[in-house]
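Reproducibility note. Readers wishing to regenerate the assembly model reported in the main text can use the exact inputs given here. Chain order matters: entities are listed in the order in which they were concatenated for prediction.
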Amino acid sequence: MVPTTSLLLLLGLALLAPGLSAEKCVLTGLWINDLGSNMTIGAVNNNGEFTGTYHTAVTATTKEIKISPLRGNQHSSNQKSQPTFGFTVKWSFSDSTTVFTGQCFVDEHGKEILKTMWLLRSHVNSIDDDWKATRVGINTFTRLRKRWE
Ligand code: BTN
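Running the prediction on these inputs yields the following structure tokens for the assembly.
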């Protein structure tokens, strides 16, 4: 029979293993979402701040789509390997603003995936139109290229 201490040790290892093997999810790089939009996120600094660019595949306007700047923050990836984050896109071709919030996950194949929700605020000319000015949705991002490519 296996001694109780060995069983406890095995149980402890089984419980700890997923946490130990969790790979880090890194925001820096080139991403594509389920709509076909691309974004590039630059280096995340020591305060968790980052900047980047967003090339949306779709627009709620009739304007010509242009690459737009984004700014965001993530929680420290030292403490959490799958950090939460948020960023704002100030659209350069419209008067709208989008905020995204989400979490950077590593799936069972070691593939990074960003699960986000967004609010898109469109400009309206009158407070009477405020009720229809905000859209909400979700986007899932995957890496377009590996970090080292
Ligand atoms: C606008 O239409 O005024 C600006 C472009 C908005 C694009 C939205 S933001 C949320 C959703 N996710 C995308 O990748 N694009 C759309």
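We highlight two features of this model. Helices lie at 4-21. The first strand starts at residue 29 and ends at 33.
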